[in-house]
Design goal:
The protein has 21 helices and ten strands. With 580 residues, the chain is an alpha/beta fold.
Length: 580
């Protein structure tokens, strides 16, 4: 009995809430039918209230107290007062709701001025920003976004600002598309910029020690103190020390031959063939012993774990919020310019390939991308597709050797996978497709491609030695891509799968975007057509569509009520004038 009484009281309280505070009840509704039910109950409650006021006026004969020459006003005086109070209540609610709305924050960090300057440049070039496809670019190659467009052979009418200008955003494009590169207006762009600066500083630091000590590692990798942990070498290995200090791919036999030559110099005066054979025999024996010695010394270096990672380049919470506020403000500026069309046509992610070297870095970068994409979806209120480009292949270990042997006539092709759009009915299809695409790139695309580039020259020993070094470098690319598979998959799953379907991954590619000319450019030209193909894969979010439908229906209802009221008043006035 008590439970029934409590349930009845809850229903009465709910009906009272719907009658006196319909917007609160609509906010608690879970679907469209519940919202329509709230509206219907509220309308019925209002009509019953007006009818009750009319009944009170009729029973208490309040029309005798009203001084008016219009009989209809005297008969409906109390219901009219109730309608006026109802309208005043709604007006007060709209005013309070407007006052509670957060004020628009001005764009900080020079984004507003940079965006307005870009608009002037596009207007001067005769390009309509509101109707040209627009893409947001998160991240950049190590040399900047100009390197990517140079590698892709894209003819830009409006060039991006120079890297030295230190602009928070770089806007460039042509009549086919406009690219807004968020250098310091996104967490992803901030990471790639810091990673490139750390890489450059590391290379300069290592380069000051000598050209043989430069190691092309990730920007967030530091070299362990090998000098303190490596055992001292014997004088017989003095010739191999420089080769061990730099990332070389020479074989043990080559190193042993160098050591034997250094310890057993031969002279031109020896003419006795027996002595020559003895020298050759001793050289072979010493080569074998040298190889054994190298085999006993080098495992201390080869079997060590991968180089340790620096602490993540974490941002302070205030700095992260500032970057996200910049991105949110930039998206709103774009949305205002491009009304009534969708603000953006897609997102392009340019990430350094070494961001997937370890799981910790992949998680960190994935978290940054996730927050950027969620901010973009919320600010633009649209669902878009994304393309991921892992840049700086030429900076990875063995990458330049692969590019040197790759045919120049084939470098315009894209290197990666195109992902199908995941169906809405299968929420797990997106992450599964990401894993399958990354596995195909790392395990089935790179190995056959690299093995075709390997070659030997058994007729020329010196040339064959150089070719074998290149083969080892190319094989190192295959090995590192296999090691990056889990990191790439985890990065993409973390960034794309957590956006609740608002961002769809439609492509994953690898490109070389070096700044040293065509020798470091490959696989970027074929990505641009794929980016342009997804420009129509954009739609408003369901919340935005529902809001538009609600606004249209509300406007139609207001116009209809005003028209009906106007017609009724005119008809009444004309009838009253005719009777008098």
């Amino acid at each position: 009995m008590i439970a029934l009484l409590k349930a009845s009281l809850r229903q009465i309280a709910r009906i009272a809430l719907i009658a006196f505070a319909p917007m609160v009840a609509i906010g608690h509704a879970s679907d469209r039918w519940q919202r329509w039910g709230v509206i219907a109950i509220h309308v019925v409650a209002v009509l019953l209230g007006i009818a009750g006021l009319g009944y009170i006026q009729y029973t208490m004969q309040l029309d005798a107290l009203v001084r008016s020459s219009l009989p209809m006003v005297r008969l409906t005086w109390l219901p009219l007062v109730g309608c006026l109070l109802y309208a005043i209540a709604w007006s007060a609610w709209f005013v309070a709701h407007t006052l509670r709305m957060p004020a628009e924050k001005p764009l900080s960090g020079g984004i507003h001025s940079a965006w307005q300057e870009s608009l002037h440049r596009f207007t001067a070039a005769g390009i309509d920003v509101a109707r040209t496809p627009l893409y947001l670019v998160l991240g950049s190659p190590a040399g900047g976004v100009r390197d990517f467009f140079s590698a892709s052979h894209t003819d830009l009418v409006v060039l991006p600002s120079a890297e030295e200008a230190d602009q928070p955003i770089q806007v460039c494009g042509n009549r086919d598309a406009i690219y807004v590169c968020c250098r310091e207006a996104s967490l992803t762009g901030n990471f790639t910029r810091r990673a490139a600066a750390a890489r450059q500083k590391y290379l300069e630091t290592m380069g000051s020690e000598g050209p043989t000590s430069i190691h092309r590692g990730p920007a967030h990798v530091w070299q362990a103190g090998d000098g303190a942990n490596t055992p001292p070498q014997s004088p017989s290995f003095s010739a191999t020390a420089p080769a061990a200090a730099k990332p070389s791919f020479s074989t043990a036999s080559d190193t042993g031959a160098l050591a034997a030559t250094a310890t057993l110099p031969t002279t031109a005066a020896s003419v006795d063939p027996t002595v020559n054979r003895m020298h050759d025999t001793f050289a072979q024996i010493e080569t074998l012993t040298t190889e054994e010695a190298v085999a006993t010394v080098r495992p201390a270096t080869i079997l060590q774990p991968r180089t340790a990672k620096l602490p993540m380049m974490r941002l302070e919470q205030s700095e992260a919020l500032e970057l996200l506020d910049r991105l949110d403000g930039l998206c709103r500026e774009i949305a205002e310019i491009r009304q009534p069309f969708c603000p953006i046509n897609g997102v392009v992610l340019m990430l350094p390939l070494d961001a997937a070297d370890c799981i910790e870095t992949a998680d960190h970068v994935g978290m940054r991308i996730e927050r950027d994409l969620n901010t973009i979806a919320t600010a633009t209120q649209s669902s878009v597709s994304a393309q991921v480009i892992f840049c700086d292949l030429e900076l990875c270990e063995g990458g330049q050797a692969l590019l040197d042997r790759f045919p120049e006539t084939q470098r315009h092709r894209r290197l990666g996978a195109i992902l199908p759009a995941p169906p809405v009915s299968e929420p797990d299809a997106g992450p599964a497709g990401i894993d399958q695409a990354v596995r195909w790139i790392c395990d089935e695309l790179f190995p056959p491609l690299a093995y075709r580039l390997m070659t030997r020259n058994l007729q020329d020993a010196a040339q064959d030695r150089i070719l074998r070094q290149g083969n080892h470098a190319i094989h190192r690319v295959v090995d590192t891509m296999r090691q990056r598979r889990d990191g790439m998959s985890r990065l993409l799953r973390r960034s794309i799968a957590a956006t609740a379907g608002n961002v769809r991954l439609r492509g994953c590619f690898v490109a070389a975007t070096g700044a040293a000319g065509a020798t470091k450019h490959a696989f970027a030209e074929g990505v641009i057509p794929q980016i342009l193909d997804i420009q129509n894969e954009v739609q408003w979010l369901p919340q935005r569509r529902q809001r538009d439908v609600w606004q249209r229906r509300t406007a139609a209802a207001i116009y209809a009520s005003v028209a009906i009221t106007t017609c009724a008043v005119l008809a009444y006035l004309l009838g009253w004038h005719a009777t008098n």
